Amino acid sequence: MAQFHCTSCGEVEEHDLVMLKACASCGATSVVNLEAQAAQVAKANDAFRAAILSGGHPVYLGRAVCTQGVAAEGLDFVVHAQIAVAAFSEFTEGNDPYGDHTFGSVTVADKTVWFKIDLYDESYSFGTDDPLDDARTRRVLTLLFPSEY
Fold first, then answer.
1. Contact present, 14 and 1 (Cβ < 8 Å)
2. Which residues, listed in sequence order, are joined to residue 33 by a DSSP beta bridge?
3. Which stretches does DSSP call E strand in 17-137?
4. Predicted structure pTM score
5. With the C-alpha atoms ordered 45, 46, 47, 48, is the resulting torsion angle positive or negative?
6. Is the pLDDT of residue 4 over 70?
7. 131: left (phi over 0), alpha (psi -120 to 50) or beta
8. Phi and psi torsions of 57, nearest 5°
C-alpha cells in the first residue's frame, strides 16, 4: 500500500498502485507518492548534512545554524556537534517516522544535541512548495538542545 497526496485538493489516498494518475477526489493529475518523495528528500538531506563541514553542497542549498544554548558551549563544541551530525546515519522508524531524515540526535561531550532540517523557499520565508525542486528549495539545519525545543 502506498500513500498519495494530491497537491491540488490536499487529499491523501492509499492505493496498491505504484503510481496514481489522478486524484479520486478532484481528478487533478498533481499526485505525489509520499514514500517515494520521502526517500528522495532523505537522500538530499543526507548529502546536505554531510556537506556542512566543507562549506555546503553544490546542489542542495541552505545553511546550518545553532541555538544560543548550543553556541554558548563554545566553538569546539559546535564543531564537534557538526562533525557528529554530518556522520549521523542511525535513522530508525522511532526517530524518523516519515523516512525523510529531517531529525536526529547525537551526543557531544556527554550532552544530547538534536538536529533538525527544515525545507524553505528560496527567500527562507515560507515552506517549500516542492521539496524535490532542488533549485528552489533551501534547507536549514538547526543544532539545538532538547530543552530548547
1. yes
2. 4
3. 31-33, 62-66, 103-108, 111-120
4. 0.84
5. positive
6. yes
7. alpha
8. -95, 140
Going 30 to 45 to 91 to 104, the CA torsion angle's sign is negative
Q: 17: alpha, beta or left, given left = phi > 0 and alpha = psi -120 to 50? A: beta
Residue 91 has what pLDDT?
Answer: 96
Mean pLDDT value of segment 47-51:
98
> Grid coordinates in use for 22?
489522478
pLDDT in tens, 68-115: 999 999 999 999 999 999 999 999 999 999 999 999 999 999 999 999
Give the chain as a 3 state SS string: CEEEEECCCCCEEEECCCCCCCCCCCCCCCEEEHHHHHHHHHHHHHHHHHHHHHCCCCCCCEEEEECHHHHCCCHHHHHHHHHHHHHCCCCCCCCCCCCCCCEEEEEECCEEEEEEEEEECCCCCCECCCCCCCCCCEEEEEEECHHHC
The answer to whether 53 and 88 have CB atoms below 8 angstroms apart is no
